[in-house]
Amino acid sequence: MLENLDKIDKAIFLFLNSLHQDWLDSIMQLVTSTTAWIPFYVLIVFFLFWKFKKYALSILIAIGLSITLADQFTSSLMKPIFQRPRPCYDEEIENQVYNYVGCGGRYGFASSHAANTFALATLFWAVGRSLEERKKIAWTMFLWASLVSYSRIYVGVHYLGDILAGALVGAGGAYLIYWVFKKLKIKPF
């Protein structure tokens, strides 16, 4: 069964990775870059202080804990345990992979980019329940997390399975942090 899932994952990856366009390559290279999103993260900090005022700091701590949990769970635990090569290192398909940003670490299961972005989106959704704009904010954050995650397939460094597992880890980790903060009655949780 795992062998069949692996074949399906590779087929989906090769299809999605082959959809590249010259005009889109530089955009996806920017989307997949962590440092390119620094202005976006700064805007999030300002938004939190604008909307939540004195509670913004506790939200930022929860965000930091959620992202750290998601990142460490995928990078320090899952990747060494599963040791699934990234598509660009997979001897079976590496010659078919469109990769122009470098391959990164040898293992890709699960995607830390997906885990981190979905952790942020999930926590934003959870704490934003008191905001009128909650649906717009949630859709925007999950759309952003999906775009960043897809960019990892586009540049040839993750399978869809890596992305889905990372997204689940990120969302689950963020919800766990949210639940702990809520149980501890830390405002605004």
UniProtKB/TrEMBL annotation:
Coiled coil: none annotated. It comes from the Bacteria. The chain crosses the membrane at residues 27-48, 55-74, 107-127, 139-157, 163-181. Keywords: Membrane, Transmembrane, Transmembrane helix. Residues 59-178 form the Phosphatidic acid phosphatase type 2/haloperoxidase domain. Pfam families: PAP2 (PF01569). This is Undecaprenyl-diphosphatase. It comes from Thermoflexibacter ruber. The lineage of its organism: Bacteria, Pseudomonadati, Bacteroidota, Cytophagia, Cytophagales.
